[in-house]
Amino acid sequence: MRIEAIYLDDTGSGPRWSPVASAANARRAAEDSRAIGYIGELDSGATRFSLPITNQAGIAQISPGATAVDLTRATASSDPDRYRPSDEQTFVRLTPDEEDERRAAGRLAAELGGAERVSTAAQLPAAGTQPIIGPYPFYYRFARVCRRLDGTLYVTSPFREPFNLLPGARSFNRAFRERFGQPLPPAAYGYEAMALLLDAIRRAGDAGDERGAVIDRVLSTTDRESVIGEYSIDANGDTTLEVITIYSIKDCRRRFGRELPASA
């Protein structure tokens, strides 16, 4: 079976994702009878525009980084069924969700003792405008922060640092650097999203070109060993790999701290 990747831009040539472009990309996939899977989006907002379209078309959608809880589980203000017009589950994400980050940030604040609050990403400066994050303004908008009285910020991210991935990821990091330069933390998650889709197609066997069969294999993923770690996919489409990365930021310098499980 020959598999071809089609690369689409969800920015609409702008500085960040575009609702129009995100929806147009999803429609393009939905209208292509050969399309078997959709990788994306990285941002939860963009995913809210693409997911109803791919879901209606019965296409497996794997997000490397959309963390909004309501994409997979009901919240007080929203229900994931709004993104499931087909009434079927077709969406999977590879990062912990925002609730996982909040729990980790709360535990971190309790450990620090002197933290005065835990704030949400919406209270942070816009991505790309904050110099203290060093080379990673790209995913700063995903952060949760504990602000200490001494001026140190403790930032959480749903992505693992490339240097802190499992030994098996070294070949990925090396190949990425040779072709694109130093990988940002989301890079390995994008790689794994495609790897998971290809594995689901392989596991589907002769039905690898059928959308429903591929969705079933993606959702039945169990104990998968990957560059980001070992994980399974639960009934909601969430990963069981709930690892949060902690950074400290002081005097405009960001330092890796440690990884923290979302649950105690």
Count of distinct strands: 8
Q: What's the SSE pattern?
A: HEHEEHEEEHHHEE
The appropriate CATH architecture of the largest domain is 3-Layer(aba) Sandwich
Give the helix proportion (percent range): 25-40%
Backbone shape = globular
Per-chain topology:
Blueprint lengths: L18 H13 L5 E3 L4 H14 L2 E4 L27 E3 L4 H15 L2 E5 L24 E5 L4 E5 L12 H11 L5 H19 L6 H9 L23 E8 L2 E9 L3
Parallel strand pairs: 1-2, 2-3
Antiparallel strand pairs: 4-5, 5-6, 6-7, 7-8
Helix pairs in contact: 1-2, 5-6
Architecture overview:
There is one protein chain. The chain is α/β, with parallel strands linked by helices. The chain folds into two domains: 132 residues, Response regulator (Rossmann fold, 3-Layer(aba) Sandwich), CATH 3.40.50; 85 residues. Helix content is 31%, strand content 16%. The strands form two sheets. Strands 4-5-6-7-8 form a five-stranded antiparallel sheet, covered by helices on one side. The chain has a three-stranded parallel sheet with strand order 1-2-3, sandwiched between helices. It starts with 18 loop residues before the first helix and ends with a strand. 40% of the residues are buried.
In short:
With 264 residues, the chain is of the alpha/beta class.
Summary tags:
264 residues, Rossmann fold, 3-stranded parallel beta sheet, globular, 2 domains, alpha/beta
